[in-house]
Amino acid sequence: MLLYIDPGTGSMLFTILIGVIGAGIYSLRMFLIKMRFILSGGKAKINEDKIPFLIFSDDKRYWNVFEPVCRELDKRGKNVVYMTSSQDDPVFENKYTHVKAEYIGKDNKAFAKLNYINATMLLSTTPGLGVYQWKRSPKVQYYVHMLHAAGEVTMYRMFGIDYYDAVLLSGEYQLEDVRSLEKMRNLPPKELVKVGIPYMDEMAERLQKSGVADMHPKTVLLAPTWGPSGILKKYGGRIIEVLLKTGYHVIIRPHPQSFTSEKEMIENLMKKYPASEQLEWNRDNDNFEVLRRSDILISDFSGVIFDFSLVYDKPIIYTDPNFDVGVYDAWWLDKPLWTVGALPRLGKELTEDNMESLKEVIDSCLTDPQYAEGRRSVKAETWEHCGEGAERIADYLINKYDKLTKTEKE
User: Are residues 224 and 176 both part of a single domain?
Assistant: First the structure.
């Protein structure tokens, strides 16, 4: 009879195995380093292979988040090692003198390396440090988490950022939420620094240089996320038919994951509603142009809502943001999500009741001045230090590095 191991146990055993192997490698390396130090009469540098600034990206889509920071550190002559889990990460095409890219595999293979990496500081957008397979390396002095979008810091799965040393934020409400979680969980206070949002700074600068889009018919962009709560999953072809009845130009830009996880649904919708002069399906890697030439966005609980409303300064229509937060850090806080209060200031909610009058809803959002004022207030709350994000992050990282290395030498 074959021995059966369920997936959960198998994952646990694999994690233990990785840990044992990693600990053995770490012990052997430390022994060799100490021996080299002794044999050299104390002249060999124990930390000569220590990476000063290490960035870990678990997916290529975060290059736009990290690139402004890499550019700023490169400009200041700081050496950065950029480790990625995507073989086709755009970082490999970068031309920065001081940024070295390295592919380290996916999931457990990546974590096996990271768990014993030697670095002074590690910057990442990846949550879950110290919770699952990704452990703190005994040779990394300081872990810094960076948000990859405007909005909640509590919408990570539980304990997502608990074991970072510092978190870079963009709004006061985020800071208050982290402090509340720390107090509830008896965690030592992290260093919380409000720095802004570098990738949105880049987008805003690009938009300023590009100017307004050429004359075009009134255009509605439907950009849903994927999964059971996504607009296309919830409403199917009905919302497409209603949009076509408005007479406005319609662009549908499904989430990239939909073409994998919801392939059959997307293919059926594209077949039933083929591209035409009025309707286009968009799969551009870069969403800049499609956002620039759209007048209003219809989306769900997606980060593109804040990109569109705060950078492009245009109204949105959104679906019900109240969903189960049971597996997220937000569950611990006895308060509504900040996003729930922000969305009504940016546009109107799409419901079953107003679906058939969607044209009137669109027209209202485009003309009502309250949404322009709402965008200003939301922007002030969630995007502090506009235009200064990369510089502030570089300042923080370099100053912290100097303090860490000074303490180490002493």
Answer: no
- In total, the chain counts a number of residues equal to 410
Instruction: Report yes or no: 258 and 232 within 8 Å, Cβ to Cβ.
Output: yes
- 221, 294 Cβ separation under 8 angstroms: yes
Residue 229's φ and ψ, nearest 5 degrees, are -95, -5
- The structural domain count of the chain equals 2
Residues 147 and 113 in one domain: yes
129 near 164, Cβ under 8 Å? yes
Tell me phi and psi for residue 195, to 5 degrees: -120, -20
pTM metric for this prediction: 0.84
Same domain, yes or no: 154 and 247: no
Please, are residues 253 and 230 in contact by the beta-carbon 8 Å criterion?
Answer: no
* 3 state DSSP class of 122: strand
Distance in angstroms (rounded) separating the CA atoms of residues 324 and 333: 13
Are the CB atoms for 230 and 224 separated by under 8 Å?
A: yes
CATH number of 225's domain: 3.40.50.2000
The pLDDT tens digits along the chain (410 residues) read: 444 454 445 544 555 555 555 445 545 655 554 555 466 555 545 556 899 999 999 999 899 999 999 999 999 999 999 999 999 999 999 999 999 999 999 999 999 999 999 999 999 999 999 998 999 999 999 999 999 999 999 999 999 999 999 999 999 999 999 999 999 999 999 999 999 999 999 999 999 999 888 889 999 999 998 888 789 988 999 999 999 999 999 999 998 888 889 999 999 999 999 999 999 999 988 899 999 999 999 998 778 999 999 999 999 999 986 667 889 999 999 999 999 999 999 999 999 999 999 999 999 999 999 999 999 999 999 999 999 999 999 999 999 999 999 977 76
d(CA 28, CA 20): 12
Q: Beta-carbon neighbour count of residue 67 at 10 Å?
A: 20
Q: What are the DSSP E strand ranges found in 319-374?
A: 347-349
Do 54 and 168 belong to one domain?
yes
**Cβ neighbours of residue 171 under 8 Å, at least 6 residues apart?**
150, 194, 338, 381, 382, 383, 384
Q: State the residue range of the domain holding 359.
A: 203-382
CA distance to 10, 18, 382, per residue, from 7 (Å): 5, 16, 40
